[in-house]
Amino acid sequence: MPIKQSVPEAPFSEKLLASLDHIEYRRIQSAEDFEDIARLRYKAYKAQDVLPVGAVDMLDEIDFDRNAYVFGIHHYEELIATIRVHYVTPDHRVCQSTGVFPDAVHAFLDAGMTLIDPARFAVDPAVVAELPTIPYITLRPSIMAAIHFDADRVLQHIRPPHASFYKRIFLADIVVPPTMAGIYGFELTLLASRVKEVRPQLMRRFPLFRSEAYERRMMFGNEAQFDSPPLTVLPTARIAGRPTSQEMAFAE
């Protein structure tokens, strides 16, 4: 009987990249699409028992802020996750983290920095087991935004048990230790990634976060640049250029 040879398991970075094959990103703009996002947020937050205190609506006014970008993540054309990405500048300080950790965020902005603030992260509980790479897929727009806007930091206001994930994957630093957040009724901590410094290493370790410039323009560009707003954006990580030799050396 011939000996069955085991096939080496693909590296995790390749699994992440392959998981993008049936993913579409859609920038949310219509009222109908926002209603779908609100339902998904409620379903996800209720399952995790993290509904904001007194929550009556899963949409808020800063969803419609001029520097807010709300995305739906679709898998085989089904909405499975969502995230809101804010571009925060010294002249425009609106974002979720400002409401939770104002002193820390304003300190960054007073120093002249620009920030990316991902928030309203929600994943359909029914797909978490089926697609364990979904946290990476959902957070990918925050890295794309940091590159598009040439931001100095990517913020992460999260529950303390999740801090190790962000420190390991995004090489994030703790900015504010666990603190009770009154509007949520539980502890949150604030982390920040020095995105310009860690970008070469991040791209080398996780090719999923790579993207072509035109994909970033479709995700974050001014709608006036297009004849009609793009309905669907396909990930370009597979065709995006690999890190340069200089980036590779920096990442070692």
Automatic annotation (TrEMBL):
InterPro entries: Acyl_CoA_acyltransferase, FeeM_cat
Domain N-acyl amino acid synthase FeeM catalytic core: 36-192
Domain of life: Bacteria
Gene3D superfamilies (UniProt xref): 3.40.630.30
Pfam families with a match to the protein in the record: FeeM (PF21926)
Secretion signal, residue range per the UniProt entry: none
Protein name as catalogued: N-acyl amino acid synthase FeeM catalytic core domain-containing protein
Organism ancestry: Bacteria, Pseudomonadati, Pseudomonadota, Alphaproteobacteria, Hyphomicrobiales
